[in-house]
Amino acid sequence: MTKMKRLLLLGCGDIPQRLLRRLDLQRWQVTAMRRSELQLPGITTLRGDVNQPASVATALECMPQQVLVTLSPDSRGEDSYRTAYLRPLQTLVTQLQSSQLNPRITLVSSTSVYPQNQGQWVDEHSPAGGSSDTSRVLHEAEQCLLQSQYDATVVRFSGIYGPGRDRLINRVRAGEFSSANRWTNRIHSEDCAGALKFLLEQVEQLDNKQLVLASDCSPVSSCEVESWLARELGVMHPGKLPDPVVGKRCRNDHLVQMGYHFLHPDFRSGYRAMLDGQRGL
């Protein structure tokens, strides 16, 4: 009989729930904690605050071998980011230090920690630290984990889109277009879940401290994305803008070389699936 793997989810929003639909729950014993009530089949759910030591201590009673941290701020302010990212990581590390547990911790982060903004290519070796108060706090949270005694994976997702994240489609449908052209990077929410599943299941192949940039295979200008969506939606696009001189371009070579295969390797694949879903196809 296969031994169950024990996974603790701190935060269980859209991406973790997509992950759960991919996991074989005959092989994974999953406990999930978040602030609001949640009932999902096949897993244990807890209501708690990741900033509260007592809540985290209760969650750790499941004796996880891996912990996946996927949190989100209530607003875009610095204090909100500290509450959503840095303090929970500090609380988790402190609670683990007073226990006998030694799980691997995976943190979902963001490519916003890269300050580059002149079209540069970035990867896991590029300087990071953020160019705003919120991105600097997010980088602090990463460092809190990477400098801890625990094996850790930090996954930096680029702009997440997918079902329920259709702001750009709605904007283009309304004939609203960007006035400037810039480099953009995306990853479909199903590939977020797929990459997390891949990393959780390939844990033996990871370094003790692993950094992964997770973005699709084709950085693209905002004008190209909007003009393609306009054609698909039958909306008049104002025309080509000058080539982008701002933004960054994310390389996913490391994740691909590790063996992950993208469901949606570029924006056309992902947005076409979304549009087909809206049309009921």
Give your account of this protein's structure.
This protein is α/β, with parallel strands linked by helices and 281 residues long. The chain has one domain (5-163, 187-218, 248-279): NAD(P)-binding Rossmann-like Domain (Rossmann fold). The chain contains 9 helices and 13 strands. The chain has helices spanning 14-22, 53-59, 78-97, 133-146, 167-173, 189-201, 222-233, 253-258, 267-279; strands spanning 5-10, 28-34, 44-47, 66-69, 104-110, 118-122, 152-157, 159-161, 183-184, 186-188, 209-214, 220-221, 247-250. The strands form 4 sheets. The chain has a 7-stranded parallel beta sheet, with helices on both faces. Strands 6-13 form a two-stranded parallel ribbon. It has a two-stranded parallel ribbon with strand order 8-10. Helix 3 (78-97) packs parallel to helix 4 (133-146) and helix 5 (167-173) packs across helix 7. The longest helix has 20 residues, at 78-97.
Give structural attributes.
281 residues; alpha/beta; Rossmann fold
> What fraction of residues sit in β-strands?
15-25%
Q: Strand tally, please?
A: 13
State the major sheet: 7 strands, parallel
Rg of Cα set:
19 Å
CATH architecture: 3-Layer(aba) Sandwich
